[in-house]
Amino acid sequence: MTLRIKNLLLDLNGTLGLDGHLLDGVKERLFRLRDSFNIYIMTADTHGTAKTLKKQLGVQFVPMEKDYGMIQKLEFLKHIGEESTVTIGNGSNDVLMLKEAAIGICVIGREGASWEAIQNSDVIVRDINDALEMLLNPKRVIATLRR
């Protein structure tokens, strides 16, 4: 089966960044991915940095309420099309979007990952930059998911 991926849906805190700041290398990789994907970052803006990051990255930020994150992420995924979307996250509120996306990638990262997120993902990586590099080099995804 061939997937036609056109969207990338990401969690911000714990996935792309730590304590409201992007991790090294993320900005450059997201710039490169903008040519291939519609990029959406969902955040409750816990650290108040979303507005600044949106300007820096030039991608779409989708606000959400902190108490309803899991459901809002799933609803947004369904809105953009789960069959054409890769999701990347690490937390319990990412579980449904990781499970329902065409490909769900769980990032362990410095903040760790919830066991539920790990169990409901197609691919587990140690670092966000590893996940983004997989998307920049699709044969890595193919090799990982080949049966």
Q: What is shown here, in short?
A:
This protein is 38% helix and 22% strand.
Structural features, described:
α5 links the parallel β7 and β8. 36% of the residues are buried. The N and C termini lie close together (12 Å). The protein has a domain of 90 residues. By secondary structure, the chain is an alpha/beta fold. A six-stranded parallel sheet has the order 5-4-1-6-7-8, with helices on both faces. The model has no long low-confidence stretch (mean pLDDT 94). The chain is globular and about 40 Å long.
- Helix percent band: 25-40%
Shape, principal axes of CA atoms: globular
Radius of gyration of CA atoms, rounded to a whole number: 14 Å
Q: What is the structural class?
A: alpha/beta
Helix count?
A: 7
Brief descriptors of the model:
alpha/beta; globular; 147 residues; 8 strands
Topology diagram in text:
Blueprint: E1 7-11, E2 17-18, E3 21-22, H1 26-33, E4 38-43, H2 50-57, E5 60-63, H3 69-80, E6 85-89, H4 95-100, E7 103-107, H5 115-119, E8 123-125, H6 128-136, H7 138-145
Parallel strand pairs: 1-4, 1-6, 4-5, 6-7, 7-8
Antiparallel strand pairs: 2-3
